[in-house]
Design goal:
117 residues, seven-stranded mixed beta sheet, four-stranded antiparallel beta sheet, 11 strands
């Protein structure tokens, strides 16, 4: 079992930055694929960014060049640095973990990000 706890959400003006953090329980954090999903009201859930055990990353087209995902295996933590935020980035952001690629079995409780125009 993996438990995930996110932090760092909040209200920011367009053009601003936020950094989300997610601390994972468990001793085998380094073996997991980690990612961030988001869901805005009335919209489908979207995978925003993901990182694997070798620090290979991928991003949704909507956030490329603005968001950066990273991980610190010594701290069991994954980060999402979000720059140049836009109102359309407003959503609940969820930290996720997968032992097998694409199978995100573990979810955090979510953290709200609100970007005002």
């Amino acid at each position: 079992q993996v438990q995930l706890v996110e932090s760092g959400g909040g209200l920011v003006q367009a053009g601003g930055s936020l950094r989300l953090s997610c601390v994972a329980s468990g001793r085998t954090f380094r073996n997991y694929y980690m990612g961030w999903f988001r869901q805005a009201p009335g919209k489908e859930r979207e995978l925003v960014a993901a990182i694997n055990w070798s620090d290979s990353t991928n991003y949704a087209d909507s956030v490329k060049g603005r968001f950066t995902i990273s991980r610190d295996n010594g701290k069991n933590t994954v980060y999402l640095q979000m720059n140049s935020l836009k109102p359309e980035d407003t959503a609940v952001y969820y930290c996720v973990a997968a032992y097998f690629a694409g199978r995100y079995d573990y979810w955090g409780q979510g953290t709200q990000v609100t970007v005002s125009s």
